[in-house]
Amino acid sequence: MKIIDKIALVLVVIGAINWGLIGLFNFNLVAAIFGDMTALSRIIYGLVGISGLWGIKLLFED
Fold first, then answer.
1. Does residue 9 contact residue 55 with C-beta atoms inside 8 Å?
2. Nearest to 18, CA basis, from 8, 27, 7
């Protein structure tokens, strides 16, 4: 697995954990750490979203 694939996978896992926390406990970990919709939190959300799109590619690799 290439390094970019590993980074994307880690970010997807972080996003999944965050969504799980939001769904179960109404607690947004990214907002708690980086602030509610600050520039840094928006970058984190953007990177997680891009990583999710990158993960689609991983589904179709051997």
1. yes
2. 27
Along the 62 residues of the chain, how does pLDDT read in single tens digits?
Answer: 799 999 999 999 999 999 999 999 999 999 999 999 999 999 999 999 999 999 999 889 87
Q: What is the dihedral sign for C-alpha 5, 27, 30, 33?
A: negative
CA 36, 56, 20, 6 torsion-angle sign: negative
Contact 8/54 with Cβ under 8 angstroms? yes
Residue 54 is part of which domain span?
A: 3-59
Tell me, rounded to whole angstroms, the distance of Cα 23 from its chain centroid.
Answer: 15
